[in-house]
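Consider the tokenized backbone below.
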């Protein structure tokens, strides 16, 4: 935020040295931020491998399993870095449902009659 303000002040003919001194920002930091803004983002080989492993496993691997899969490919990377790369590239695992409903009420099998018919106290034992 401060670097953007220094840049705006520079456009209005305020020297960078004065702006940086007033905002308590280093000039070298300002120029480094300008350089970073112009430079294109580098494509990391680890990121490419991470994305390919994630897609190859059906988008269901989390950071632990991705780290293990990358380790088997010979890429040593920490779990926190895997988590950060996943967050940076919006790689969110999709969990599969563990429970499947198997009840089918629309069947053609015979259905037993309601013997009690909400009469929970029959007249004698074994009469329902």
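A designed sequence for it:
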């Amino acid at each position: 935020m401060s670097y953007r303000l220094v840049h705006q002040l520079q456009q209005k003919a305020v020297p960078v040295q004065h702006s940086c001194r007033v905002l308590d920002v280093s000039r070298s930091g300002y120029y480094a931020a300008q350089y970073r803004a112009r430079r294109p983002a580098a494509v990391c080989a680890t990121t490419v491998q991470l994305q390919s492993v994630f897609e190859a496993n059906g988008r269901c691997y989390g950071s632990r399993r991705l780290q293990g899969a990358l380790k088997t490919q010979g890429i040593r990377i920490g779990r926190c870095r895997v988590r950060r790369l996943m967050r940076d590239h919006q790689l969110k695992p999709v969990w599969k449902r563990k429970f499947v409903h198997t009840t089918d009420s629309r069947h053609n099998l015979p259905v037993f009659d309601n013997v009690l018919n909400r009469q929970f106290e029959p007249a004698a034992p074994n009469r329902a």
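The CA atoms of residues 118 and 128 lie 11 Å apart.
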